[in-house]
Amino acid sequence: METPIRTSRALTDVKYEIRGQLASRAHELEKRGYEIVSLNIGNPGLFGFRTPETMRLAMIENLGQAEPYSHQQGIFPAREAVVMQQQNRGVLGISVDEVFIGNGVSELIDLALRALLNPGEEVLVPSPDYPLWSAAVTLNGGTARYYPCPPEADFQPDLDAIAAAINERTRAIVVINPNNPSGAVYPKETLRDIVALARRHNLVVMADEIYDQMTYDGAEFVPMATLADGAACLTFSGLSKVYRACGYRVGWCVFTGDLDRIRDYQHAMELLAALRLCSNVPGQWAVQTALGGFQSIGQLVEPSGRLYQSRQTVLERVAASRHLSVVAPMGAMYAFIRLHDRFADRLNDRDFALELLESRHVLVAPGSSFNTPYTNHFRVTTLPDPDTLNDVFDRIDDLLDQHA
C-alpha angle 162/163/169, rounded to 5°? Predict the structure, then answer.
């Protein structure tokens, strides 16, 4: 046998199990004819949610202008719309120069970390986290150091643990709000305390706010940039979730706070953006219409809306189960569900997820794939309609009845 081609050692500690081995196994089962209910990814288009028609029309009408490369930071109308959104939220003193449009938030996270980190430097990341953050830190030579957001505290950040984790190698702190996977929404006081720590230790605050308008039951989303005076803040958001346009691959990153102090950092990111020429241009033409038009997400998250109703179905089914519990998600489109302690010695999250897939044809994400120290949670998306979710929880309860 010939010597196999070696892969990069940089990938040794990189994991993204949301689309990992379980998802690959689900694909194999589908090729064999099984119908799999896939609840592992928050992908609105797969569950009947449509991108607003005005956004599609904006792309179609501007296709003729979408053939050349755009500016490396994005087209002016898209960046201007982001600036206007920030100004409407009370974030002043920024221009289109502080806005970067990317191929989804994922690309911008990678560029922002690459522009910041030197080998061995650390980034504070929440646990549970969205695992792209951990992977991007590792791929860019850094070390992800986790601060706990424990289920016992409704997944709110442990501020004392954050302070204790900061050292001379720490460069940034990641805040995911509303949180994926837990659905926690952070109060203003918590965010203000995190900014104060960042300012005191000269850290960059990286605010992942992709679910910013997706909140329930009166939960208030507070943009981190509104609290960032004197600190260095990067805000990440995009079209994929609130505007149900995952496939457009359009995200943005905004530099706010002490702009003079982060100007070199901003220029470094501009260089990296130029090296990849530009992001997808047709999708950028949907940004101005999305941010400036009717915000239909509001109808979906109110009590009569579909997102709210599906979330409510999950909460009711978990409450009715003797095997499960959950901290009610106050934002985003997921529920981070806990297995009863009776399963602790014989069924961890990965074993449960694999057996659920093989025997009941439901795909969920094991909780430990979100970098938790515990192995008794799993994440489902709350995007399916209530009938589908009721069927899913029938299958889950049936499986756990056998183990109980």
Answer: 90
CA 301 – CA 12 distance, rounded (Å):
40
Which residues face 232 on adjacent strands? 204, 257
pLDDT for 229 = 84
Euclidean distance between CA atoms 352 and 349, whole angstroms? 5
Tens of pLDDT, residue by residue over 350-368, are 999 999 999 999 999 999 9
Q: Give the pLDDT confidence of 70-120 residue by residue, as tens digits.
A: 999 999 999 999 999 999 999 999 999 999 999 999 999 999 999 999 999
Residue 380's beta-bridge partner residues? 335
Q: The tokens 């990641």 sit on which residue?
A: 174
> Cα(203)–Cα(197) distance, rounded to whole angstroms?
8
Domains present along the chain, CATH in parentheses: 9-50+299-403 (3.90.1150.10), 53-292 (3.40.640.10)
Structure tokens given for 174: 């990641």
**Angle, alpha carbons 250-214-286 (nearest 5°):** 25
Place of tokens 């515990």: 374
Query: In sequence order, what are the residues at sequence separation of 6 or more whose Cβ sits closer than 8 angstroms to the Cβ of residue 115?
Result: 265, 268, 269, 271, 272
Q: For position 1, what pLDDT does the model report?
A: 64
CA distances for 92 relative to 6, 98, 226, angstroms: 50, 12, 9
CA angle 376, 369, 393 (to 5 degrees): 50
Q: Check the CA dihedral 14-19-21-22 and report its sign.
A: positive
Q: Are 99 and 150 in contact (CB under 8 A)?
A: no
Q: Which residues does residue 233 pair with via DSSP β-bridges, in sequence order?
A: 205, 256
Query: Using an 8 Å Cβ cutoff, are 129 and 174 in contact?
Result: yes
Whole-model pTM: value is 0.94
What are the tens digits of pLDDT across the range 324-343?
A: 999 999 999 999 999 999 99
Which token pair is 111? 């560029």
Torsion of CA 378, 382, 388, 393, to 10 degrees: 30
CA-based nearest residue to 209, from 379, 303, 89: 89
Q: What residues have CB less than 8 Å from 362, skipping those under 6 apart?
A: 36, 37, 39, 356, 392, 395, 396
Q: Which two tokens stand for residue 263?
A: 């100007």
Residue 17 has what pLDDT?
A: 74
